[in-house]
Amino acid sequence: MIHGDYMDGILPVYKEAGMTSHDVVMRLRRLLHISKIGHSGTLDPDATGVLLVLIGRATKALPFLEDTDKEYIATMKLGMRTWSDDTSGEIIETRAINEISDFPQLLKQFIGKQKQLPPMVSSVKVNGRKLYEYAREHKIVERPLRDIEIYDIECLDETKHEFRIFCSSGTYIRSLCVDIAAKSGNLGCMDTLIRTRVGRFQLSDCVTLKQVENGELPLFSLAKALAHYPQVAYEPLSDIIQGKKIKLACEADEIAVCDKDEVMAIYRRSEDDVFSCVRGLW
Questions:
Q1: What pLDDT, on a 0 to 100 scale, did the predictor assign at position 1?
Q2: Confidence (pLDDT) at 260
Q3: Does residue 47 sit in the same domain as residue 92?
Q4: Where residue 250 sits, what CATH number does that domain have?
Q5: What pLDDT shows up at residue 6?
Q6: Domain count of the fold of the chain
Q7: pTM of the entire predicted model
Q8: One of 8, 23, 44, 272 is an active-site residue; which one?
Q9: In terms of domains, do 78 and 60 share one?
Q10: Is 44 a catalytic residue?
Q11: How far is CA 54 from CA 16, 28, 250, in A?
């Protein structure tokens, strides 16, 4: 979509290894000559896969994309523990490997709602500081357990300890690898990670930075990015533009209000059939 002198929409980018998610945003700002660009769901520098980039007014939708479910393909390495819980970090302990007799069955034990300990190298805050700041000083602090849910997990290669996982937002696959290894009586960490899906967006929807450089820019609408919200049409549109409370007959407590095929705002139930504007997205 084009609005005035700038564009807006969702650009699914295939993030390559060796660059941060912020690096992708900075590169796109230079390529597109647009400053209003952000991203949802940070990927570690060594990880690859789907990174949702928000352009123009789509950046307003960032808070509503952070809880989007995700899918990954990961491999786990046994016999070592590192500061970062992946093979890129400094090794702090090694141990002989106990062979896993039934890796697929071991993985199935992790399906469901559970508590997870975030990695020391992460942006989770403790006492006002991000965990990775403590990790840089080689300090281990008490970390808050986080609520996550693993919807499905399947073995792809038992020899390589490769698996696919479908999980809630906020799940650290590095921590999961540590936990899987521990369940088998091993030390372990994550070796490789590919994010294959974020919400409705898959690898097949993505473009590389090189493709963008060559003029390919397949922008998706906010309606697709926010498809996890019930989308409700409402008139008059002026009420939505002015952020007024509105009356709706619907079951969901939080909805995306649309004008034709365009999402205009996120509304939340305040009482009975009355909904209040959470944020305008026009």
A1: 37
A2: 84
A3: no
A4: 2.30.130.10
A5: 57
A6: 3
A7: 0.89
A8: 44
A9: no
A10: yes
A11: 18, 11, 29
Residues 96 and 131 in one domain: yes
Question: Could you tell me which residue, 180 or 40, shows the higher pLDDT?
Answer: 180
| CATH number (domain holding residue 191) | 3.30.2350.10
Alpha carbon distance 203, 198 (integer Å): 9
| DSSP string across the chain | -EETTEE-EEEEEEEPTTS-HHHHHHHHHHHHT-S-EEEES---TT-EEEEEEEEGGGGGGGGGTTT--EEEEEEEEESEEESSSBTTSPEEEE-PPPPPS-HHHHHHTT-EEEEEPPPSSSS-EETTEEHHHHHHTT-------EEEEEEEEEEEETTTTEEEEEE-TT--HHHHHHHHHHHTT--EEEEEEEEEEETTEEGGG-B-HHHHHTT----B-HHHHTTTS-EEE-S-HHHHHTT--EE---S-SEEEEEETTEEEEEEEEEETTEEEEEEE--
4 pLDDT above the threshold of 50 = no
Same domain, 44 and 152: no
Residue 66 has what pLDDT? 77
Place of tokens 């700041």: 133
> Which two tokens mark 282?
């026009």
Which pLDDT value is given to residue 2? 37
**Range of 56's domain?**
2-66+200-224
Do both 98 and 177 map to the same domain?
A: yes
CA atoms of 185 and 140, how far apart (whole Å): 22
